[in-house]
Design brief:
The protein has helices spanning about 15-25, 45-55, 70-80, 100-110, 130-145, 160-170, 180-190, 220-225, 235-245, 255, and strands spanning about 5-10, 30-40, 60-65, 85-90, 95, 115-120, 120, 155-160, 195, 200-205. The N and C termini lie far apart (about 40 Å). The longest helix has 17 residues, at about 130-145. The protein has ten helices and ten strands. It is globular and about 50 Å long. Helices cover about 35% and strands about 15% of the residues. It has one domain (about 5-205): Spore Coat Polysaccharide Biosynthesis Protein SpsA, Chain A, CATH 3.90.550. It is an alpha/beta fold.
Length: about 260
């Protein structure tokens, strides 16, 4: 019986899905279910996902379809089908090394300093690079303790104890409709336990992420995020940041519509 589920929601990712799925299929950890949620792709991604996974018969895979546009809707659909003790969320354009799930499993099953979430570092270079490894160690052993109730990387590498994630409300538009949903989600998850990091828990997102005013918070907003104590984080998200994002029309759907890379892949 599998103890892990990996949820991957995708929309028009034909150019990236085969490599990402191959990396997931190569995980050393045995016993996981891969849940693929097609968010109404129009580029044949769903067929590519099925064809790719047909070459990896050892992987237990489920294929789902969510017609409502938006990654949050697709992730919510995927999470609703999870029956395992642990769940991880993957992005369709990200490389996950073979040891990825094994490290996440070790972090979430350890007896000392128990955690309800394990967050992976996103890197853009050789993982053995001295500078990269130093930064990962710095955040693992220093920053994640000094800034304990904050997320220190993106949602491309989030893993959870399923029970804690569900208690927190999971991915859901009813909680947050804006960009940076991963940070808002962690604000809710921290109410049920700590987060773990490890220098060896890393992945490589693609370099084609949207970077525009409609998907990016300002430097003052980011500084205030780090400076706001956990007791006031609800105020920060729901009274301060949320209204500002709404005024600037920074909907989570902007990630779906602002896809300049589609003409260059």
């Amino acid at each position: 019986m599998s103890d892990w589920s990996l949820v991957l929601a995708y929309y028009n990712e034909a150019a990236f899905l085969p490599a990402t799925l191959a990396a997931i299929a190569a995980q050393h950890h045995v016993g996981f279910t891969l849940i693929l949620v097609d968010n109404a792709s129009s580029d044949g991604s769903a067929d590519i996902a099925r064809a790719t996974m047909a070459t990896f018969p050892h992987v237990d895979v489920r294929f789902l379809h969510e017609p409502k546009p938006g990654q949050l809707n697709a992730l919510e659909t995927g999470l609703a089908t999870v029956t395992t003790e642990f769940v991880g969320f993957c992005d369709a354009d990200t490389y996950y090394p073979p040891h990825y799930l094994s490290v996440a499993n070790r972090l979430l099953t350890r007896k000392w300093r128990p955690a309800v979430a394990a967050l992976a570092f996103g890197i853009d270079c050789d993982p053995a690079d001295t500078g990269s490894r130093f930064r990962r160690r710095l955040y693992t052993h220093v920053m994640s303790r000094l800034l304990r109730y904050q997320a220190h990387d993106g949602g491309f590498g989030y893993c959870f104890k399923t029970e804690a994630l569900r208690k927190a409300g999971g991915y859901a538009q009813r909680h947050w409709q804006h960009v940076l949903a991963d940070h808002e989600l962690m604000n809710r998850v921290f109410r049920y336990g700590d987060c773990a990091y490890d220098p060896d828990l890393w992945c490589k997102p693609s370099d084609r992420r949207p970077d525009s005013p409609s998907t990016r918070w300002t430097l003052p907003e980011r500084i205030l995020y780090h400076a706001t104590p956990f007791a006031l984080k609800d105020w920060y998200f729901y009274k301060f940041l949320g209204p500002r994002f709404a005024a600037r029309k920074m909907s989570a759907l902007n990630y779906r519509t602002e896809r300049s890379w589609e003409t260059s892949v």
